[in-house]
Amino acid sequence: MEEIALEITEEYEDVRLDKCVSDLMGEKLSRSLVQKLIKSGELTVNGSPVKVSYAVKQGDEVQFTLQDPITPDIAAEEIPLSILYEDDDLLIVDKPKGMVVHPAAGHYTGTLVNALMFHCAGGLSGINGVLRPGIVHRIDKDTSGSLVVCKNDKTHRDLAEQFKVHSIVRKYYAVCCGNFKEDAFTVDRAIGRHPADRKKMCVTDRPDGRRAVTHFRVLERFGKYTYLECTLETGRTHQIRVHLASLNHPVLGDLVYGNQDYKGIGQILHAGVLGFRHPASGEYLEVQSPLPEYFQNALRFCRR
Prior knowledge:
By secondary structure, the chain is α+β, with helices and mostly antiparallel strands. It has six helices and 15 strands.
């Protein structure tokens, strides 16, 4: 249980209370849950209950209690894993398309974490809680490729810091719609939660946006489609997909961000290269995940 106190700043002046609080809380609290708190009187403004439609003012004090989530038991499951590298401190798995990384509502079995709990027999870092043991970063369900997992808290803290300072090498491969004149280019646009759809992200100039930088290099042109290498300087949610969609060149098969071609497959996006300083040895470690069959089929589709 956590007591939350928010002071409204100038940039949220006259914004609806439910939208303001959900924006400020990010992924911690959905807008629908904020509305329930307001309607029940559990969320107050300046000590008094208000309506959901209340327009907040600079200096308003919003208070409520955030209840601890009910944590389900996560079972170890004997699910085959493709392992690119493993030692006593960490392992790097080659996550298949369609596998959820960690348990969440609607996905408490069949996740990468369920498989890791069986493979590592409980030997995973605990910093991110019981739902995300060993998980220091993640990739989307429909993105395949390399993902590092921590076996102890010391390794987890070290790698988390490397992610924080953007020193980890992460190269993705994608097929996007349309053609680029440039052989290489960079997108430096902040990313934040979509104002109308909380399941989506978007490029934004709002104060809650976080800087996002992606470096792109053209590998092959097909006329209607382009094969790209995408190097992450930062690692925001859906970063590559959002940046390409903002250029009107969405990832092939990405129905969320605007492409209807190649339906039923999901986005053609693969985490190919992952490199970092090993927390124990101090030496640089890099692994490469080969292009999976679905990706190679997409390239054949584009070449036709």
